[in-house]
Specification:
single chain; alpha/beta; Nucleotidyltransferase, domain 5; 2 domains; 9 helices; 7 strands; elongated; Transposase_HTH_dom; Helix-turn-helix of DDE superfamily endonuclease
Length: 244
């Protein structure tokens, strides 16, 4: 991150800043990893709140710009001779805003941003989508981002949970004991239960991707603008990729 900041300063001709690149990188990491507020960072680094805000926005924008696109992530996985990826979604909790209804997730019972993600068979996070209002369900979000179509073009199948049932051909989801809530439940046979168990074992590795993402406490409850949540998530993805 220090090198990215230093290169950016050189490119824009910035001759002097209150903090050197390595201190700016430390400030941004403290904000992302620990969720420290701007006021707390300003007091700790001896600078103004506006300067902290400018440093955080500048650095996270630079990092998010380096995050891989969906096409790049899928083809990179295909070139490693894997034949499937794991698709999952989560809702990053946010504070309530004026546009209340679109951002309220009835499933999670709080306001948030719906983010889709892909992980490889080992649980490594590959790609994070643009954020959508929290009321958007996972199936609609996957269709909005054209995830299934691009995975099919790369020759990859997708493993997903029951929330993606019948989202598109090539997406493997668990067998259900009923098709909809208006039908009576039926007992699944041993073969179907075994298939669901095998799928759950493979998908459990993909849960590690979101676990790593949410270890960055800034995403525990994002108090920034809803438009910044995607930038923060993609910045963290870039840091995880560079770390790996």
């Amino acid at each position: 991150m220090t090198q990215i900041i230093r290169t950016h300063r050189r490119a824009i001709g910035s001759r002097w800043r209150r903090l050197p690149p390595q201190r700016q990188a430390l400030l941004v990491l403290a904000h992302l990893r620990n969720g420290d507020t701007y006021q707390r960072l300003a007091a700790g680094f001896g600078i103004g709140v506006a300067t902290v805000c400018r440093y955080v926005h500048e650095t996270t924008d630079l990092l998010a710009h380096r995050a891989p696109s969906l096409t790049a992530a899928l083809w990179r996985l295909a070139w490693t001779f894997h034949n499937y990826a794991i698709l999952d979604g989560t809702v990053i909790r946010t504070d309530r805003i004026a546009a209340n209804k679109p951002y309220y997730s009835g499933k999670h019972r709080h306001h948030g941003i719906n983010i889709q993600a892909l992980t490889d068979p080992h649980g490594t996070l590959l790609w994070i989508s643009e954020g959508l209002p929290g009321a958007t369900n996972d199936t609609a979000a996957a269709r909005h981002h054209h995830i299934c179509e691009q995975a099919a073009q790369a020759g990859l199948r997708l493993l997903a949970d029951g929330g993606y049932d019948q989202v598109a051909p090539g997406v493997i989801t668990p067998y259900k004991n009923r098709r909809n809530r208006h039908q009576p439940t039926r007992e699944l046979g041993p073969a179907y239960k075994a298939a669901n168990t095998a799928l759950a074992r493979l998908r459990s590795r993909g849960e590690r991707g979101f676990a790593i993402l949410k270890n960055w406490r800034i995403l525990t409850r994002a108090r920034c603008s809803t438009h910044r949540v995607t930038t923060l998530a993609k910045a963290i993805l870039t840091l995880e990729h560079d770390h790996n």
